[in-house]
Amino acid sequence: GHEIDAPLRYGVELMVTGHFTQAERFFQNRIKRGSVPTVQRYAQDKSISSYAWKESKAHPREMLLCGEALVLRLWLTAESSETKRAADLFSAAVDRAESALRDSESALQKAVPGSARWSVLRFDVEDCKLVLAEATFFKAAMQLVSGQSVRGLYQLRRAWNLFEESGYHKRVKPLDLSTSLVNGSSATKD
């Protein structure tokens, strides 16, 4: 139905609203199809709409979100029977992100700096780095939950290093909580 061409946001909204099984199914279908995220699918210039990798391959972000939907369901329902499947999903997301990162970095070196394709590939590189860090973190969490403490702690340290290497935390501005968004008043009493 309408889910086939729905943007990635649809699956995220399913997770946020507690429809974890539907969200997992949504992302699994997108992974099978090798769908292209909205930012590139609706690009005006068709020359930038192709990835560095084959479009038939799953996007690492979708693989990560599929695993996150499963984990949210597992944590909220206290189901531990599918912990291994979740760990396997995150392992696959890590592998896919590493592969996509290599492909994107290679294509970025060949792209004309400042061009639209260069901008999209640069975004892909940054996104793959973040997906790799997040997937590694969740993989570590699943290993820790399943009793694989040494492996889990190693992966947790690796995730930390990947986040540090991405530099993302250095580029994000902290949220100013001194003003309330509800009524515009100061959040702190003088």
Question: Would you write up a description of this structure?
Answer:
- The structure is a single chain.
- The protein has helices spanning 8-16, 20-33, 38-41, 60-77, 83-110, 116-145, 149-166, 168-171.
- Helix 1 packs parallel to helix 4 (60-77), helix 2 runs antiparallel to helix 4 (60-77) and helix 6 (116-145) packs antiparallel against helix 7 (149-166).
- It contains eight helices and no strands.
- Helices cover 66% and strands 0% of the residues.
- It is mainly alpha-helical and 190 residues long.
- It is globular, with a radius of gyration of 19 Å.
Chain-wise SSE layout:
Blueprint: H1 8-16, H2 20-33, H3 38-41, H4 60-77, H5 83-110, H6 116-145, H7 149-166, H8 168-171
Helix pairs in contact: 1-2, 1-4, 2-4, 4-5, 4-6, 5-6, 6-7
| Spatial shape | globular
Task: Classify the helix fraction into a percent range.
Answer: 55-70%
What is the number of beta strands?
0
H and E order: HHHHHHHH
The largest sheet, given as strand count, sense and whether it forms a barrel, is: none
